[in-house]
Design brief:
single chain; about 300 residues; alpha/beta; TIM Barrel; 8-stranded mixed sheet; two-stranded antiparallel sheet; 9 helices; about 15% strand; binds adenosine monophosphate; binds manganese (II) ion
Length: about 300
Protein backbone atom coordinates (compact mmCIF):
# COMPACT_ATOMS: atom_id res chain seq x y z
CA UNK A 1 0.00 0.00 0.00
CA UNK A 2 1.50 3.31 -1.05
CA UNK A 3 -1.35 5.81 -0.50
CA UNK A 4 -4.51 5.73 1.59
CA UNK A 5 -7.41 8.13 2.03
CA UNK A 6 -6.64 11.80 1.87
CA UNK A 7 -3.42 11.25 3.79
CA UNK A 8 -0.16 9.80 2.53
CA UNK A 9 0.84 6.60 4.20
CA UNK A 10 4.35 5.82 3.08
CA UNK A 11 5.27 2.21 3.55
CA UNK A 12 8.51 1.81 5.46
CA UNK A 13 10.37 -1.40 4.73
CA UNK A 14 12.91 -2.45 7.34
CA UNK A 15 15.75 -4.78 6.48
CA UNK A 16 18.91 -5.83 8.28
CA UNK A 17 21.89 -7.54 6.66
CA UNK A 18 24.36 -7.37 9.55
CA UNK A 19 23.49 -8.99 12.89
CA UNK A 20 25.17 -11.14 15.52
CA UNK A 21 23.93 -13.97 17.74
CA UNK A 22 25.40 -15.74 20.75
CA UNK A 23 27.17 -18.07 18.30
CA UNK A 24 29.76 -15.29 18.04
CA UNK A 25 29.68 -12.19 20.24
CA UNK A 26 25.98 -11.27 20.23
CA UNK A 27 23.82 -11.34 23.35
CA UNK A 28 20.73 -13.04 21.89
CA UNK A 29 20.54 -16.66 20.92
CA UNK A 30 19.63 -17.26 17.26
CA UNK A 31 15.95 -17.98 17.95
CA UNK A 32 15.63 -14.87 20.11
CA UNK A 33 17.17 -12.79 17.35
CA UNK A 34 14.75 -14.13 14.73
CA UNK A 35 11.77 -13.57 17.05
CA UNK A 36 12.89 -10.04 17.81
CA UNK A 37 13.39 -9.22 14.14
CA UNK A 38 9.91 -10.56 13.38
CA UNK A 39 8.42 -8.52 16.21
CA UNK A 40 10.16 -5.46 14.74
CA UNK A 41 8.58 -6.13 11.31
CA UNK A 42 11.87 -6.70 9.56
CA UNK A 43 11.20 -7.91 6.01
CA UNK A 44 14.63 -9.43 5.38
CA UNK A 45 17.21 -10.48 7.98
CA UNK A 46 20.73 -11.78 7.46
CA UNK A 47 22.60 -13.32 10.38
CA UNK A 48 26.29 -12.49 10.00
CA UNK A 49 28.19 -13.92 12.95
CA UNK A 50 31.97 -13.59 13.04
CA UNK A 51 33.49 -16.53 11.17
CA UNK A 52 30.76 -19.05 12.01
CA UNK A 53 27.38 -20.15 10.64
CA UNK A 54 26.30 -22.16 13.67
CA UNK A 55 23.95 -19.37 14.71
CA UNK A 56 22.43 -19.14 11.26
CA UNK A 57 21.78 -22.89 11.23
CA UNK A 58 19.87 -22.73 14.52
CA UNK A 59 17.98 -19.63 13.36
CA UNK A 60 17.09 -21.28 10.07
CA UNK A 61 15.58 -24.32 11.81
CA UNK A 62 13.51 -22.05 14.07
CA UNK A 63 12.50 -19.72 11.22
CA UNK A 64 11.39 -22.58 8.96
CA UNK A 65 8.70 -23.47 11.52
CA UNK A 66 7.41 -19.87 11.78
CA UNK A 67 8.60 -17.67 8.91
CA UNK A 68 5.98 -15.04 9.70
CA UNK A 69 6.52 -13.14 6.44
CA UNK A 70 10.19 -12.50 7.13
CA UNK A 71 12.90 -13.70 4.81
CA UNK A 72 16.06 -15.09 6.43
CA UNK A 73 19.28 -14.79 4.44
CA UNK A 74 22.34 -16.92 5.23
CA UNK A 75 25.32 -14.73 6.05
CA UNK A 76 28.68 -14.45 7.72
CA UNK A 77 31.18 -11.74 8.67
CA UNK A 78 34.62 -13.01 7.75
CA UNK A 79 37.81 -11.58 9.26
CA UNK A 80 40.78 -11.06 6.94
CA UNK A 81 43.98 -9.10 6.48
CA UNK A 82 44.70 -6.28 4.11
CA UNK A 83 47.56 -3.82 4.41
CA UNK A 84 48.34 -4.81 8.02
CA UNK A 85 44.74 -4.16 9.09
CA UNK A 86 41.94 -6.55 10.02
CA UNK A 87 39.11 -6.05 7.55
CA UNK A 88 35.63 -7.54 7.90
CA UNK A 89 33.86 -8.81 4.80
CA UNK A 90 30.20 -9.78 4.82
CA UNK A 91 29.21 -12.84 2.85
CA UNK A 92 25.49 -12.72 2.05
CA UNK A 93 23.34 -15.37 0.43
CA UNK A 94 26.07 -17.99 0.63
CA UNK A 95 25.56 -21.72 0.44
CA UNK A 96 27.12 -22.89 3.68
CA UNK A 97 27.38 -26.44 2.36
CA UNK A 98 29.46 -25.42 -0.65
CA UNK A 99 32.98 -26.93 -0.38
CA UNK A 100 34.53 -23.43 -0.49
CA UNK A 101 32.45 -22.31 2.51
CA UNK A 102 33.04 -25.58 4.41
CA UNK A 103 36.75 -24.96 3.90
CA UNK A 104 36.40 -21.32 4.98
CA UNK A 105 34.58 -22.30 8.18
CA UNK A 106 37.29 -24.81 9.08
CA UNK A 107 40.09 -22.33 8.38
CA UNK A 108 38.43 -19.57 10.40
CA UNK A 109 37.62 -21.80 13.35
CA UNK A 110 41.22 -22.95 13.56
CA UNK A 111 42.46 -19.38 13.11
CA UNK A 112 40.31 -18.17 16.00
CA UNK A 113 41.46 -21.00 18.27
CA UNK A 114 45.17 -20.36 17.53
CA UNK A 115 44.70 -16.63 17.83
CA UNK A 116 43.11 -17.04 21.27
CA UNK A 117 46.22 -18.88 22.48
CA UNK A 118 48.39 -16.07 21.15
CA UNK A 119 46.22 -13.35 22.73
CA UNK A 120 46.40 -15.18 26.07
CA UNK A 121 50.20 -15.38 25.76
CA UNK A 122 50.39 -11.65 25.12
CA UNK A 123 48.16 -10.93 28.12
CA UNK A 124 50.24 -13.28 30.30
CA UNK A 125 53.31 -11.26 29.36
CA UNK A 126 51.49 -8.25 30.79
CA UNK A 127 50.81 -10.10 34.03
CA UNK A 128 47.31 -11.44 33.33
CA UNK A 129 47.44 -15.17 33.93
CA UNK A 130 44.67 -17.61 33.07
CA UNK A 131 43.24 -15.56 30.20
CA UNK A 132 42.78 -18.50 27.82
CA UNK A 133 40.80 -20.59 30.28
CA UNK A 134 38.88 -17.52 31.35
CA UNK A 135 37.99 -16.41 27.83
CA UNK A 136 37.05 -19.95 26.80
CA UNK A 137 34.72 -20.15 29.79
CA UNK A 138 33.16 -16.83 28.77
CA UNK A 139 32.75 -18.05 25.19
CA UNK A 140 31.14 -21.38 26.08
CA UNK A 141 29.88 -22.77 22.76
CA UNK A 142 30.47 -19.48 20.94
CA UNK A 143 33.20 -18.74 18.42
CA UNK A 144 35.92 -17.22 20.61
CA UNK A 145 36.94 -13.60 20.09
CA UNK A 146 38.33 -10.55 21.80
CA UNK A 147 34.97 -9.72 23.45
CA UNK A 148 35.30 -12.92 25.50
CA UNK A 149 38.75 -11.87 26.69
CA UNK A 150 37.29 -8.47 27.51
CA UNK A 151 34.45 -10.04 29.49
CA UNK A 152 36.95 -12.15 31.45
CA UNK A 153 39.06 -9.07 32.24
CA UNK A 154 35.96 -7.32 33.59
CA UNK A 155 34.96 -10.38 35.62
CA UNK A 156 38.45 -10.54 37.14
CA UNK A 157 38.39 -6.86 38.01
CA UNK A 158 41.37 -6.12 35.75
CA UNK A 159 39.32 -3.38 34.06
CA UNK A 160 36.11 -1.52 34.87
CA UNK A 161 34.19 -2.39 31.69
CA UNK A 162 34.44 -3.84 28.20
CA UNK A 163 35.39 -0.51 26.67
CA UNK A 164 38.33 -0.13 29.02
CA UNK A 165 39.46 -3.67 28.14
CA UNK A 166 39.52 -2.72 24.45
CA UNK A 167 41.03 0.72 25.04
CA UNK A 168 43.90 -0.62 27.12
CA UNK A 169 44.57 -4.17 25.98
CA UNK A 170 42.50 -5.52 23.10
CA UNK A 171 41.61 -2.74 20.67
CA UNK A 172 43.32 -1.84 17.41
CA UNK A 173 47.09 -1.56 17.91
CA UNK A 174 47.02 -2.87 21.51
CA UNK A 175 48.76 -6.00 22.77
CA UNK A 176 45.75 -8.29 22.26
CA UNK A 177 45.07 -7.13 18.70
CA UNK A 178 46.40 -10.26 16.98
CA UNK A 179 45.87 -10.27 13.20
CA UNK A 180 48.45 -12.79 12.07
CA UNK A 181 46.06 -15.70 11.79
CA UNK A 182 43.58 -14.18 9.39
CA UNK A 183 43.64 -15.10 5.70
CA UNK A 184 44.22 -12.44 3.06
CA UNK A 185 41.33 -10.34 1.76
CA UNK A 186 41.39 -11.88 -1.71
CA UNK A 187 41.10 -15.40 -0.33
CA UNK A 188 38.11 -14.57 1.82
CA UNK A 189 36.31 -12.78 -1.02
CA UNK A 190 37.03 -15.81 -3.22
CA UNK A 191 35.37 -18.19 -0.74
CA UNK A 192 32.24 -16.05 -0.57
CA UNK A 193 31.87 -15.69 -4.32
CA UNK A 194 32.62 -19.38 -4.95
CA UNK A 195 29.86 -20.37 -2.54
CA UNK A 196 27.31 -18.30 -4.41
CA UNK A 197 27.24 -15.23 -2.18
CA UNK A 198 27.80 -11.53 -2.55
CA UNK A 199 30.81 -10.11 -0.71
CA UNK A 200 30.40 -6.68 0.88
CA UNK A 201 32.98 -4.62 2.78
CA UNK A 202 31.68 -4.25 6.34
CA UNK A 203 31.69 -0.86 8.14
CA UNK A 204 34.15 0.74 5.68
CA UNK A 205 34.64 3.84 7.83
CA UNK A 206 35.72 1.92 10.94
CA UNK A 207 39.24 1.08 9.75
CA UNK A 208 40.58 4.58 10.24
CA UNK A 209 41.72 4.78 6.61
CA UNK A 210 42.23 7.97 4.65
CA UNK A 211 39.94 8.45 1.64
CA UNK A 212 42.77 7.35 -0.67
CA UNK A 213 43.47 4.21 1.30
CA UNK A 214 39.80 3.29 1.43
CA UNK A 215 39.68 3.59 -2.36
CA UNK A 216 42.73 1.32 -2.60
CA UNK A 217 40.97 -1.23 -0.40
CA UNK A 218 37.90 -1.12 -2.64
CA UNK A 219 40.02 -1.56 -5.76
CA UNK A 220 41.72 -4.66 -4.30
CA UNK A 221 38.35 -5.95 -3.12
CA UNK A 222 36.77 -5.53 -6.57
CA UNK A 223 39.80 -7.15 -8.24
CA UNK A 224 39.23 -10.18 -5.96
CA UNK A 225 35.56 -10.46 -7.03
CA UNK A 226 33.89 -8.34 -4.36
CA UNK A 227 30.83 -6.40 -5.47
CA UNK A 228 29.19 -4.88 -2.37
CA UNK A 229 29.74 -2.30 0.32
CA UNK A 230 27.87 -1.42 3.50
CA UNK A 231 26.13 1.91 3.08
CA UNK A 232 24.84 1.75 6.63
CA UNK A 233 26.41 -0.21 9.46
CA UNK A 234 24.92 0.81 12.77
CA UNK A 235 24.81 4.44 13.72
CA UNK A 236 26.18 6.79 11.11
CA UNK A 237 25.87 10.45 10.21
CA UNK A 238 24.23 11.65 7.01
CA UNK A 239 27.67 12.76 5.76
CA UNK A 240 29.06 9.28 6.27
CA UNK A 241 26.19 7.72 4.34
CA UNK A 242 26.74 10.19 1.50
CA UNK A 243 30.47 9.46 1.46
CA UNK A 244 29.78 5.74 1.15
CA UNK A 245 27.08 6.30 -1.49
CA UNK A 246 29.65 8.19 -3.56
CA UNK A 247 32.10 5.29 -3.30
CA UNK A 248 29.36 2.81 -4.24
CA UNK A 249 28.58 4.84 -7.37
CA UNK A 250 32.23 5.37 -8.30
CA UNK A 251 32.98 1.65 -8.16
CA UNK A 252 29.54 0.42 -9.27
CA UNK A 253 29.02 -1.52 -6.02
CA UNK A 254 25.78 -2.93 -4.66
CA UNK A 255 24.97 -1.54 -1.23
CA UNK A 256 24.09 -3.37 1.96
CA UNK A 257 22.28 -2.00 5.02
CA UNK A 258 22.66 -3.35 8.54
CA UNK A 259 22.61 -2.54 12.23
CA UNK A 260 25.65 -4.63 13.30
CA UNK A 261 23.39 -5.48 16.22
CA UNK A 262 25.14 -7.26 19.09
CA UNK A 263 23.03 -6.36 22.13
CA UNK A 264 20.99 -3.58 23.65
CA UNK A 265 24.11 -1.56 24.40
CA UNK A 266 23.62 2.20 24.69
CA UNK A 267 26.08 2.97 21.86
CA UNK A 268 24.72 0.31 19.48
CA UNK A 269 21.94 0.46 16.91
CA UNK A 270 18.69 -1.47 17.23
CA UNK A 271 17.66 -4.00 14.58
CA UNK A 272 16.40 -2.73 11.22
CA UNK A 273 17.38 -0.10 8.65
CA UNK A 274 14.93 1.59 6.27
CA UNK A 275 15.57 0.21 2.80
CA UNK A 276 14.86 3.65 1.36
CA UNK A 277 18.20 4.82 2.80
CA UNK A 278 19.62 3.53 -0.49
CA UNK A 279 18.26 6.19 -2.83
CA UNK A 280 19.41 7.73 -6.06
CA UNK A 281 19.84 4.69 -8.24
CA UNK A 282 21.90 2.65 -5.78
CA UNK A 283 21.32 -1.09 -6.13
CA UNK A 284 20.65 -2.95 -2.90
CA UNK A 285 22.06 -6.42 -2.29
CA UNK A 286 18.54 -7.34 -1.12
CA UNK A 287 17.27 -7.01 -4.70
CA UNK A 288 18.94 -10.40 -5.24
CA UNK A 289 16.30 -11.96 -2.96
CA UNK A 290 13.11 -10.32 -4.18
CA UNK A 291 10.46 -12.56 -2.61
CA UNK A 292 10.16 -10.27 0.44
CA UNK A 293 10.65 -6.57 0.99
CA UNK A 294 10.28 -4.05 -1.81
CA UNK A 295 7.34 -4.50 -4.06
CA UNK A 296 6.49 -7.89 -2.58
P1 LIG B 1 37.30 -10.19 17.17
O1 LIG B 1 36.22 -10.63 16.24
O2 LIG B 1 37.75 -11.24 18.10
O3 LIG B 1 38.45 -9.53 16.44
O4 LIG B 1 36.64 -9.05 18.09
C1 LIG B 1 36.12 -7.91 17.49
C2 LIG B 1 34.77 -7.58 18.08
O5 LIG B 1 34.96 -6.91 19.30
C3 LIG B 1 33.97 -6.61 17.22
O6 LIG B 1 33.17 -7.28 16.28
C4 LIG B 1 33.11 -5.91 18.25
O7 LIG B 1 31.92 -6.63 18.44
C5 LIG B 1 33.91 -5.98 19.52
N1 LIG B 1 34.54 -4.69 19.88
C6 LIG B 1 35.46 -4.02 19.19
N2 LIG B 1 35.81 -2.88 19.81
C7 LIG B 1 35.08 -2.83 20.94
C8 LIG B 1 34.98 -1.91 22.03
N3 LIG B 1 35.74 -0.81 22.09
N4 LIG B 1 34.12 -2.19 23.01
C9 LIG B 1 33.36 -3.30 22.98
N5 LIG B 1 33.41 -4.21 21.99
C10 LIG B 1 34.26 -3.99 20.98
MN1 LIG C 1 31.44 -8.27 17.06
MN1 LIG D 1 32.82 -6.07 12.10
MN1 LIG E 1 29.56 -7.20 12.87
Amino acid sequence: MALSGPYYSVQIVLIDFHTHTSASDGALDPCELVARAQASNIAQLAITDHDTMVGYEAAEAYHRQRPGGMQLIPGIELSCRWSATTIHVLGLGIDRRHPAMCHALEVMSAARAERAVKIAGRLAARGFDGALEGALAQAGDSQIGRPHFAAWMVEQGHVDDLNQAFDRYLGQGKTGDVKAFWPELAEVVGWIVASGGVAAIAHPLKYGFTGMKLRRLIECFVAAGGSGIELVSGRQTRDQVEHLARLARDYDLEVSLGSDFHSDAPYGADLGVESSTARGGLRGVWERWPSAGQGA
